[in-house]
Amino acid sequence: MRSDLTRRAALALALALPALPAGAQEAAGQKPLRIGIIGAGKIGGTIGALWVKAGHEVMFSSRHPEELTGLVEGLGARAKAGTPAEAVRFGEAVFVAVPYKAYPQLRADLGEALKGRIVLDAGNATQARDGDLYTEAQANGIGTTSAKYLAGARLVRAFNAANYRLFEANANRPAPRMAVPIAGDDEAALEMGRRLVSEAGFDPVVVGTLTDADRFAMGSPGFGHVLGASELRAKLGLAP
Ligand SMILES: NC(=O)c1ccc[n+]([C@@H]2O[C@H](COP(=O)([O-])OP(=O)(O)OC[C@H]3O[C@@H](n4cnc5c(N)ncnc54)[C@H](OP(=O)(O)O)[C@@H]3O)[C@@H](O)[C@H]2O)c1
After folding, report:
1. Which residue's alpha carbon is at the smallest distance from atom 48 of ligand 1?
2. Residue 2 has pLDDT above 50, yes or no
3. CA-CA distances (angstroms) from residue 93 to 4, 154, 175, 189, 230?
4. Are the C-beta atoms of residues 93 and 47 closer than 8 Å to each other?
């Protein structure tokens, strides 16, 4: 199976982490969320597993959902498998974690369903993998390009700026927690982004609007750091 290895890696991560008891979200004063994951590969599987551990209900999706059985069984009752369309319907928030070259297909398949939805967008464009989409993102900015293909979604760029192995290794580490830059135009969506970054085990750093997402895009000076929030803010030239 194509991504069986990464799905097993996500599972291993999930099993290695202590689970929050059921109801832990309520105890913290917040209702658990329903989160839909589009693209249960390396980054979708890793971050989704962290949200399950935090007490949320997560639907992992695939165009071949039967391949996700092992992953969701290992994660327990709060994890489910479905198709991408089912995951969009399921989620109060949707996490998009597919190769950037798939965004035109995503627009064709899910564009209508994503309108008005809060979407955390992990996609990065790379020249070798994404071809024309890379060229477009370089020319127009990554946030603007995502907003074009996911038009009408309430987008937050999140979990773009590091490899999934760094997220896996640093989630919920002792203070200072690893900072995760995020950016978006919609204040309520950004608030959801802050919450979901925090509950995955990191400190959110709001860098600005979607246009500012280039400041932590792949290949930019803001990419690839494992820093606490104040150090990352300094690196990005943000106010302390
Ligand atoms: N890997 C990282 O460390 C990392 C870190 C930050 C950001 N990112 C970015 O996150 C995105 C995903 O990267 P990844 O490494 O997690 O990729 P991956 O392991 O290859 O997983 C991508 C998933 O996307 C799904 N997919 C592909 N085309 C699709 C389509 N048209 N519709 C719906 N689902 C589709 C595939 O699921 P099915 O084939 O099962 O449907 C696949 O499991 C990329 O844009 C990448 O640049 C990656």
Report:
1. 43
2. no
3. 25, 10, 27, 9, 27
4. no
Q: Is the pTM of this model over 0.85?
A: yes
Closest CA to 53 of 201, 192, 180, 162: 201
User: What distance in angstroms lies between residue 146's CA and the mean position of ligand 1's atoms?
Assistant: 15
> Which sequence spans correspond to the domains of the chain?
1-88, 98-240
For ligand 1, the distance from its centroid to the CA atom of residue 3, given in whole angstroms, is 10
pLDDT digits (tens, 9 = 90+) for 6-50: 565 555 655 465 556 555 666 677 899 999 999 999 999 999 999
Decide whether any atom of ligand 1 lies within 6 Å of the 71 Cβ: no
Of 5, 43, 157, best ligand 1 pocket probe by most atoms within 8 Å of the beta carbon:
43
Q: In CATH terms, is domain 98-240 a member of 3.10.120.10? A: no
Nearest-CA neighbor of 55 among 17, 16, 8, 85?
Answer: 17
Residue matched to tokens 């959110």: 204
Ligand 1 centroid, distance to 21 Cα (angstroms): 30
